Amino acid sequence: MPRFKTILVTGGAGYIGSHCVVDLLEAGHDVVAIDNFANAVGDEEGSPALQRAEQITGKKITFYKADLLNKSEINDIFDKHQIDCVIHFAALKAVGESMQQPLLYYQNNLLGMLNLLEIMRSHNCYQLVFSSSCTVYGEPESLPITETHPTGNITNVYGRTKYFIEEMLKDLSAAEKKWNIISLRYFNPVGAHPSGLIGEDPTKEFTNLMPFMAQVALGKKPVLTVFGNDYNTPDGTGIRDYIHVMDLASGHVAALNLISENHVGLKVYNLGTGKGVSVKELVNVFERVTGTNIPLKYVERRLGDITAMWADATLAKEQLGWTTKYTIEEMCSDFWRWQTMNPDGYPKKNIKASVIINGKS
After folding, report:
1. Transmembrane stretches, by residue range (predicted)?
2. Pairing relation of β-strands 239-240 and 6-10?
């Protein structure tokens, strides 16, 4: 049995959260998941993503519709369960939206984290894996990026919220030595569970590249909008480090394993493949793997975007024993399987509550 039995997953019904829940259940953990459905499909009756995570694993999830801005709601959940560790995904995450609604992002991401930390401390739970982002590095001075690269010179509000939280965690772990925290700086998650049962189903117009691309491939959208083709890159489009969501999920289990056996204080790890792929290259691979055609329309760069970014993930390999397993082709084929099996995403109404809702079946 794993040393940490019960894991609280905030934002558990979301894209990355739901895939991580699958890995946690398969590793033998019990999962209590919360979500307010700001970024995920679901309602008071439950979450289709978590229902399908149960289907994949054959295990039960305890789920609460709850918001981190409501302290009493979260406190009640900690009162009901002996939480050994928290994996904190819950955050608003769209770069474009963050530039238009900064106060919304500061309120949700910073206050949500603050409330969570205070409640954890009051329940003697000091183990945390935090979902951070490579956006904390800003426009990189050199590539690939290691964890020692300077942070803070950030080009968008979303990234600043992640940076401020990392600074908060630094101060907290320095002042209170009980805390045992790993901050995982994600690069660009794509793909879906190989079963095709769970995947990314954006709830807002500010969407990531691959869901938009798949909608064009399905004929649901006429053209893929590419923001900027005048970057200083070989084909003029931005370069990112795309990582399969299941590789990202396994990174969280590896982080959990490390803090369950060691007191690390605060550690930071990059989770990426170490390879940069341009938007145009990703489109070409997607077309080749899926046999589809994706017309492109180039528009001006988005405020807050950077030119190129890819990881040096050596530290995660050395200290977490973690490496990526999936290729860019598999990222595309797995996402296409999810999208063709679920052309409209998750069912939006009459979600059957097979998950345990608010502690009751």
Report:
1. none
2. unpaired
53-76: b or e for each residue (b if 16 or more CB lie within 10 Å)? bbebbebebbbbbbbbeebebbeb
Q: CATH number of the domain at 156, please.
A: 3.40.50.720
Q: Which candidate in 64, 105, 158, 326 is catalytic?
A: 158
Domain that residue 261 falls in: 6-357
Q: Specify the amino acid at residue 174.
A: A
Q: What is the pLDDT of residues 175-212, one digit of tens each?
A: 999 999 999 999 999 999 999 999 999 888 756 899 99
Here the tokens at position 292 are 């589809």
Total domain count for the chain?
Answer: 1
pLDDT digit string (tens) for 330-347? Answer: 999 999 999 999 999 999
Asked if the structure places residue 161 within a domain, the reply is yes
Predicted confidence at residue 354, as pLDDT, reads: 44
In a domain, 232, yes or no: yes
Domain assignment present for residue 253? The answer is yes
Q: What is the mean pLDDT of the chain?
A: 94
